[in-house]
Design brief:
five-stranded antiparallel sheet; six-stranded mixed sheet; mainly beta
Length: 187
């Protein structure tokens, strides 16, 4: 019995934050400008963050509150590439940059929206894979199966699927995340 008590035990991590995420691949006249992410947080995490940053408790984030939230709860995600992994034609894009951060409150929950630039402007075939996940398992991210493509898609025929991507496997290749896979074929 003593050996059973002293034997090392497996530690299991589990999520504390739950996020629903949708992606919109945005095109401009030059090509794929980037991907806009929108995250909806679970009620408990949203209540905790809004309790700290919605100072007047009006269920709206004014400019001052939004800036404080960005500096206090979003900027640090840069150290984790915003939980975003991007492969363009098999090559990883790092570091990930997040622009146009806009927090809001929708239906009583906290929402983050931001833009990740990609700037793919040539007219060659490209495969862009974007997965959102936290390798520490502290945050669980559920990807929207209906991600979108928006803007003037002049140079390309596109297809967008959500599928597991073996090239992004982590935790000793035991976990394969789902990624939005955008295929861009020249017209």
């Amino acid at each position: 019995m003593l050996f059973c008590l002293l034997a090392p035990q497996k530690a299991s991590a589990h999520p504390h934050v739950f996020v629903d995420c949708s992606l919109t691949f945005e095109f401009n006249d030059n090509g794929l400008s980037g991907v806009r992410q929108k995250w909806w947080f679970d009620e408990m995490f949203a209540a905790m963050i809004l309790g700290d940053f919605d100072k007047n408790h009006d269920n709206k984030l004014n400019e001052e509150e939004a800036t404080a939230l960005e500096n206090g709860a979003f900027v640090n995600l840069k150290n984790f590439n915003y939980f975003t992994r991007i492969l363009v034609d098999g090559n990883e894009r790092t570091p990930v940059e997040a622009l146009e951060f806009k927090p809001s409150i929708e239906d009583g929950t906290l929402v983050y929206e931001f833009f990740v630039p990609l700037d793919i402007t040539d007219d060659a075939k490209h495969v862009v894979m974007v997965a959102i996940y936290d390798e520490s398992f502290y945050t669980s991210v559920q990807m929207d199966p209906q991600n979108k493509v928006r803007g003037p898609i002049q140079k390309f025929k596109t297809s967008l699927e959500l599928e597991p991507v073996a090239e992004m496997a982590y935790f000793y290749d035991q976990i394969t995340p789902e990624a939005a896979v955008l295929t861009m074929l020249p017209k």
